[in-house]
Amino acid sequence: MRFFINLLRPSSARSLSIQIAKTIRKSAELIDGKKIAGDMRKVLKREIEEWVQNNNTRPPSLVAVLVGEDPASQKYVHFKMNAAKEVGITSKTINLNTSITEEELLDIVNKLNQDETVDGILVQLPLPEHVSERKICNAVDPQKDVDGFHLNNIGKLCVNKDTLIPCTALAVVELIKRSKIETFGKNVVVCGRSKNVGLPIAMLLHSDYREELPGMEATVTICHRNTPREELIYFAKRADIIISATGVVNLITPDMVKPGACVIDVGITRIKVDGKTRVVGDVDFEGVSKIAGHITPVPGGVGPMTVTMLMKNTFQAAQCLKAST
Ligand SMILES: NC(=O)c1ccc[n+]([C@@H]2O[C@H](COP(=O)([O-])OP(=O)(O)OC[C@H]3O[C@@H](n4cnc5c(N)ncnc54)[C@H](O)[C@@H]3O)[C@@H](O)[C@H]2O)c1
């Protein structure tokens, strides 16, 4: 009896309805980047085999330049080389000492530019402080620039021209498309404005469908380290899609997510838990997955897709170079 009396009290009714809502609310649908990447790699492998056969040519080839012994960079290059093998791209890593000068590195890049057996060149970032990353990225032949970091390629992206586009941006778009998330006229918040990650994501998301790039046609707001937290919350709460690429752990919390929104976590941060290293993203995954409609995990979300898009870019570069000979 007391239970029913309590039910009639507004505050009790409210707390009961929250309880019920909590129990019946479905968790967000997981966007399984690892699975999608695996499926894409199988298709890509077939496409590459066919292209090699039909053109009576060698397989596409990728060279990674790795300066120093940063464990994270070593790991990323290792993943990239494995993926290349998986899809039938020949690959090689050039390991260099951190003491290498900018001139020496430029010389290596120039030799790779001129090497007709190389289709794709990637210089793993970050580089040592005494080497200008911008200079090195600009030294890579734009046609072999599979990371899409050369100014020519960034410029083309900014004017919606088809080109080699940074892999993480391609990965985010591919995940959104394959999850059938509508972007046309929708509100998107991109957290992070770096030239290699946040900016290209934002460029692709608001691209015009009447031009050469995949027109995503969203209304995009870019937030960055100097966006006040309350402004970030204001924009995030109105967003149909939140893409976070900052490396700030727990930047995106449940209170700032619109119910049903799609949340794409690009961030990668290594933290120590009980003496063990764990990789986490920018999003409070557990909390946000109770509110969002779709969510990417970390690891297993954007990461494997980024590597897959690198393989697609390498194949694209090989096709373009072959066509121009
Ligand atoms: N999953 C992948 O495939 C992949 C690929 C590349 C980078 N990453 C990860 O993405 C993250 C970003 O990479 P990056 O190279 O752009 O890093 P970066 O350090 O160059 O840029 C970080 C960005 O975050 C913004 N930022 C910092 N604090 C913020 C805040 N409180 N609110 C909003 N924005 C804030 C900064 O303004 C900056 O634009 C890193 O964690 C990186 O490891 C993941």
UniProtKB/TrEMBL annotation:
Pfam families given in the database record: THF_DHG_CYH, THF_DHG_CYH_C
Reactions accelerated catalytically: (6R)-5,10-methenyltetrahydrofolate + H2O = (6R)-10-formyltetrahydrofolate + H(+)
Domain Tetrahydrofolate dehydrogenase/cyclohydrolase NAD(P)-binding: 166-319
Annotated GO CC locations: mitochondrion
Gene3D superfamilies the UniProt entry points to: Leucine Dehydrogenase, chain A, domain 1, NAD(P)-binding Rossmann-like Domain
InterPro entries noted in UniProt: Aminoacid_DH-like_N_sf (IPR046346), NAD(P)-bd_dom_sf (IPR036291), THF_DH/CycHdrlase (IPR000672), THF_DH/CycHdrlase_cat_dom (IPR020630), THF_DH/CycHdrlase_CS (IPR020867), THF_DH/CycHdrlase_NAD-bd_dom (IPR020631)
Tagged with keyword Oxidoreductase: yes
GO biological processes: tetrahydrofolate interconversion
Annotated SUPFAM superfamilies: Aminoacid dehydrogenase-like, N-terminal domain, NAD(P)-binding Rossmann-fold domains
This enzyme's EC code(s): 3.5.4.9
GO MF terms, alphabetically ordered: methenyltetrahydrofolate cyclohydrolase activity; methylenetetrahydrofolate dehydrogenase (NAD+) activity; methylenetetrahydrofolate dehydrogenase (NADP+) activity
UniProt keyword annotations, A-Z: Hydrolase, Multifunctional enzyme, One-carbon metabolism, Oxidoreductase
Subunit structure: Homodimer.
Xref: HAMAP family: THF_DHG_CYH
Protein name: methenyltetrahydrofolate cyclohydrolase
